[in-house]
Q: What sequence folds into this?
């Protein structure tokens, strides 16, 4: 290796070890992350937004990957740089810190004493053997069990508390890398997707986010879907009753499992999350009873959505829209309802709502013909998010380490106490890796107790 | 007694505390400063009772849930956490004058909630029906509150530093003389962020855990998530800046204020200007 090469490598290494790089990368990540919160991201880009952009802007954004910013090459690059940076920083600093932890300075000589901000001298009576015993029991009871070293007749004691707190920072750095590893495992070996299942039917594959069809390896049947509402009309619960089928047979323990928002169903590492619902296109016959206001037997009518059905007294009716629960539209009422449009020979078409639970209500409308709604055979479909993520436990491991590491780094302090005894002359010194003011109080208390010995 | 009456009393207490703290700045009378803290703590106790009462009232309405479910409830809780963190720092480090720059944040929150917001107790929509709501909201807001306190302290730092520079010495009188020295302010700023950062980290993790439990993805770059990460990045930069020469003091104070601005945008701006999974919080 030439000197020039070595110089370059050294410069590169120093660059990646620098704390300034860490700060710059963190600020850069913070700033660039804003872009993706302002510009809509795939797959949720509204058509209108695309149209509102000029051609040049559209091309520029597309080139820069702004529509999928968090997966763009440059954002990923920033994350990789941060990873390399924190690995390099840790490699550079960890050995020194590890040495403090694993090979503590056992002897406080006079030069080292001068480097400590907290020291105290006391004169004490007694021969060295008694003093040694006294000091050992003093440190053991008041601080921590000491290590005793004798050098040329001088007695040195060293005691420390939570030395491993110095490693907290590196635990946090490691935890971030573990979270990244978990995320990478998830993105290579897992998938996210979606299924829709009509009540009474089953599916054996899902559609991934990228539009691929992935077999589940089993089948999932939706026995029933229901939605309930609060009195205010706000939704209370979306519930799918699900059954897992293997080779067409229900799997014991996975039969009629209610799956609601915040309570998913997991089978063979694949999890199903209640996410949406709607009316299935099949079925969809609506049933009505129609009678003239002047009296007479009601006539039963059947209509499919959008189909114009002739009325017994002349004219037609059709179903415009329907719901299984009217409460979210008209809070005072509940149950299924349909909005129908009635066209009689003369006059403009009239549209109004009829409700199954209130068959007499249409009388108040004042029309010549009174409609009541008998419900429909329309079925719901349930929409379930599907996810398989074998990396998620690695991510949680990383998160747990991160919290532990932060607590170690922030709230624990490596405290050290040295005592030197020479001919009845006792010198105590102390240092702490954090919170010097707090440690000073503790040190003063120790000095107080030492002088009273 | 209703929770809403107690919330009004709380607001008045925080107003009185703010006035007392401003009077403390002007008069430098120890008794006035003590009154400022005392009134704030009394307000805090009333607010604690009020939050408990509102919780109970929601059960009486038949859909009991912790009062952390909409913007009104979160702003009230935010005020509560600000006074809590201020109380911890006040009792531990005894720099009372900080109250003049922190209690106003709590007052602002309560006044906005009581005067400008719909305070009705709403039932929980399905997405929020989870115990994770409690863990997630509590950790996040305690973190936000610590950052609010740090921001107040940083503002004091910048004022104090500017005055010291202008006068050429630190012997100047006036209001600013009551401030702790810039070294202490710098240290307190760091201490407040040391409380906030682990809590924000926990808040993000509990949010991720909840998202994974409810939707199957622990991270989806939803604007709220992204902004919380932006806040995390800013404070991570702050913590690293502390151990770098040239970044202590002024720049650290500015970073702390920027961090709190990002926090407020994460909390309110995202709901008001951007769309996403947390949009229910914006009502």
A:
């Amino acid at each position: 290796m030439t000197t020039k090469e070595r110089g370059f490598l050294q410069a590169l290494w120093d660059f990646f070890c620098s704390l300034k790089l860490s700060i710059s990368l963190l600020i850069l990540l913070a700033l660039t992350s804003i872009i993706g919160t302002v510009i809509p991201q795939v797959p949720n880009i509204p058509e209108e937004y695309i149209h509102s952009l000029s051609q040049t802007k559209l091309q520029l954004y597309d080139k820069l990957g702004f529509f999928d910013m968090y997966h763009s090459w440059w954002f990923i690059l920033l994350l990789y740089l941060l990873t390399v940076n924190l690995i390099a920083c840790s490699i550079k600093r960890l050995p020194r810190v590890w040495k403090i932890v694993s090979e503590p300075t056992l002897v406080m000589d006079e030069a080292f004493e001068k480097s400590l901000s907290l020291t105290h001298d006391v004169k004490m009576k007694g021969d060295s053997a008694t003093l040694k015993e006294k000091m050992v029991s003093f440190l053991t009871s008041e601080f921590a069990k000491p290590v005793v070293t004798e050098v040329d007749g001088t007695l040195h004691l060293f005691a420390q508390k939570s030395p491993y707190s110095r490693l907290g920072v590196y635990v946090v750095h490691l935890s971030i890398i573990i979270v990244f590893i978990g995320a990478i495992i998830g993105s290579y070996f897992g998938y996210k997707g979606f299924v829709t299942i009509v009540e009474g039917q089953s599916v054996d594959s899902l559609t991934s986010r990228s539009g691929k069809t992935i077999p589940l390896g089993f089948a999932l049947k939706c026995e029933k879907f229901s939605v309930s509402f609060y009195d205010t009309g706000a939704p209370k619960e979306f519930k799918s009753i699900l059954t897992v089928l293997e080779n067409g047979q229900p799997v014991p323990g996975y039969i009629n499992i209610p799956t609601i928002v915040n309570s998913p169903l997991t089978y063979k590492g694949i999890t199903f999350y209640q996410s949406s619902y709607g009316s299935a296109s099949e079925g969809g016959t609506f049933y009505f009873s129609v009678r003239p206001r002047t009296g007479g037997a009601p006539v039963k009518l059947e209509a499919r959505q959008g189909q114009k059905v002739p009325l017994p007294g002349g004219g037609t009716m059709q179903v415009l829209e329907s719901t299984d629960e009217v409460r979210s539209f008209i809070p005072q009422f509940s149950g299924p309802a349909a909005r129908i449009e009635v066209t009689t020979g003369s006059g403009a078409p009239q549209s109004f709502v009829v409700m199954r639970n209130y068959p007499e209500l249409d009388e108040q409308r004042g029309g010549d013909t009174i409609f009541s709604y008998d419900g429909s055979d329309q079925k719901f479909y349930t929409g379930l998010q599907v996810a398989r993520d074998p990396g998620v436990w690695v991510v949680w491991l990383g998160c747990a380490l991160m919290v532990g590491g932060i607590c170690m780094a922030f709230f624990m302090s490596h405290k050290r106490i040295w005592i030197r005894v020479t001919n009845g002359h006792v010198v105590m010194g102390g240092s702490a890796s954090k919170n010097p003011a707090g440690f000073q109080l503790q040190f003063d208390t120790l000095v107080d107790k030492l002088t009273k010995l | 007694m209703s929770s809403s009456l107690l919330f009004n009393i709380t607001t008045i207490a925080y107003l009185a505390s703010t006035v007392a703290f401003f009077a403390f700045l002007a008069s430098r009378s120890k008794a006035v400063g003590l009154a400022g803290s005392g009134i704030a703590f009394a307000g805090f106790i009333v607010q604690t009772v009020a939050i408990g009462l509102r919780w109970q009232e929601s059960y009486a309405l038949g859909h009991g849930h912790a009062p952390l479910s909409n913007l009104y409830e979160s702003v009230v809780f935010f005020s509560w956490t600000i006074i809590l963190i201020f109380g911890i720092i006040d009792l531990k480090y005894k720099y009372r004058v900080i109250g003049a720059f922190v209690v106003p944040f709590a007052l602002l929150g309560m006044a906005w909630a009581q005067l400008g917001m719909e305070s009705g107790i709403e039932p929980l929509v399905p997405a929020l029906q989870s115990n994770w709501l409690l863990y997630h909201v509590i950790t996040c807001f305690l973190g936000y509150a610590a950052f609010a306190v740090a921001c107040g302290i940083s503002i004091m730092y910048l004022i104090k530093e500017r005055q010291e520079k202008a006068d050429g010495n630190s012997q100047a009188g006036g209001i600013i003389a009551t401030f702790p020295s810039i070294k202490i302010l710098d240290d307190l700023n760091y201490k407040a962020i040391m409380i906030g950062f682990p809590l924000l980290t926990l808040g993000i993790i509990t949010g991720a855990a909840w998202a994974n439990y409810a939707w199957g993805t622990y991270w989806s770059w939803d604007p709220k998530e992204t902004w919380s990460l932006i806040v995390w990045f800013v404070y991570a930069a702050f913590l690293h800046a502390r151990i770098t020469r040239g970044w202590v003091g002024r720049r650290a104070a500015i970073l702390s204020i920027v961090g709190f601005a990002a926090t407020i945008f994460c909390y309110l701006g995202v709901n008001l200007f951007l769309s996403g999974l947390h949009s229910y919080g914006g009502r």
Summary: The CA atoms of residues 143 and 196 of chain B lie 4 Å apart. Chain B has two domains: 1-120, 139-283. Chain B touches chain A at residues 63, 122-123, 125-127, 129-130, 132, 194, 197-198, 201-202, 205, 208-209, 212-219, 221, 223, 226-227, 229-230, 233-234, 236-237, 240-241, 243-244, 247, 262, 270, 274 (CB under 8 Å).
